Amino acid sequence: MKTLILKNGWLISPEDKLSGKYDIKIEDGIITDISDSISVNGGEEVLDCADMIVSPAFVELHSHMREPGFEEKETLETGLRAALKGGYGVVCAMANTKPVADNEKIFEYVQNKAKEVSPIEFHQVCAVTQGLTSKTLTDFEGLHKKGAIAFSNDGKPIEDMDVLKKALEAAKKSDVLIMLHSEVSALAAGGAVNEGKASDYLGVKGIPNEAESEAVKRELETIRSVEGARAHFCHISTRQSVELIRQAKKEGLCVTAETAPHYFSLSDEDITSSDAKFKMNPPLRSRRDVEAIIEGIVDGTIDAVATDHAPHTNSEKMSGIQNAPMGIVGFETALPLVITNLVKKNYIDLNRAIALLASNPTKILKLNKQGTIKKGNISALTVFHADRKHVVKGSEFVSKSKITPFENAELSGKVEYVVINGKIYS
């Protein structure tokens, strides 16, 4: 029997109401003891976690692995290595691959490939509609039987509300999650940055807040018409969207929401050049929007932080803010941005940070034995320094994409280890 003991760490597991100094014993990959002090007899592997936090491994709701079809941007292997470096033990990837993940063959291919290259628990999110065209629904029941737990057309909005209603009804029957990319295409088309200071400064077309919030409004109306359906709002970025979701939750709608680290860490005022490292969808919004996102995190309107890891080749991202594709990498900076811009600024504590990154995403996805630290669970743990400072260098990223808007930023918080199934990854 292989035994690993984590010693001297400060254990935080919000779902288990654990916050204190504990040792953890793992035998053959299973957590068998959580105690104030576990004795070492000499035959065990010991990981000293002194001055570090031990938490459930992080759970990524929303990323883009790019495989199959766009392996020059990222592969499952490089993307999942980046996720592991960032502290993630579970990763969900969106369906906008080539071919689209809209059928059992592609779903099984990606799932099997992920198992071959990474210890991370991987979930391929399947497309809501065939080819992401927002016309014909995919086979929800068949894909769910194969293991699909969520469906999304992320990267493209579903703008036909009759199609969305049918999707919500199909998802309800299979008890799977619909993840929404909220966008009014006509308002966002051709835009490169937020409408306002950034678009004026750069002389490019801007994307107004209404491109997101009007979509959220119509989607909520459709969700109201399908009682009991579960819907999740991806990458929320505007104050209007936060307020709409806040009201919907007060009404009792079964909705959840995520934001990404860049939406509480940067505003459009931080865009000081036409460098496409600042280009993502939705775009960086105003300071007022940033404040509203933080308020939504604090009061629970926003349930989770997801990276929206969306890598592109360096040459693509160096083609200027007007021409470059939308998207930035996020796995390797997520925890430091949460700690630096939320915890260190006293908006939230570490318990809430871990809920945003681990336990809440687990509940949203209805995953069993993730996001918690309990006896009998397969070990999935992240060990990190909350106070250790480091300077971001994109050249050091594991991801194929090395371009980040946080280049040279000094951040607090550093993942040291991830323990999955009793094995240490660093």
Based on the model shown, name its key terms.
426 residues, alpha/beta, TIM Barrel, eight-stranded mixed sheet, 18 strands, globular
Task: Annotate the secondary structure layout.
Layout: E1 3-13, E2 18-27, E3 30-35, E4 45-48, E5 53-56, E6 58-63, H1 76-85, E7 88-93, H2 104-117, E8 121-124, H3 140-146, E9 150-152, H4 161-174, E10 177-180, H5 185-188, E11 193-194, H6 197-202, E12 206-207, H7 210-224, E13 231-233, H8 239-251, E14 255-259, H9 261-265, H10 287-299, E15 304-305, H11 314-317, H12 334-343, H13 350-365, E16 380-391, E17 410-420, E18 423-425
Helix pairs in contact: 4-7, 7-8, 8-10
Explain this structure.
- It is a single chain.
- 31% of the residues lie in helices and 23% in strands.
- With 426 residues, the protein is of the alpha/beta class.
- Strands 1, 2, 3, 4, 5, 16, 17 and 18 form an eight-stranded mixed β-sheet that branches. Strands 9-10-13-14-15 form a five-stranded parallel β-sheet. A three-stranded parallel β-sheet has the order 6-7-8.
- α4 packs across α7, α7 (210-224) runs parallel beside α8 (239-251) and α8 (239-251) runs parallel beside α10 (287-299).
- The protein is globular, with a radius of gyration of 21 Å.
- The two termini are 23 Å apart.
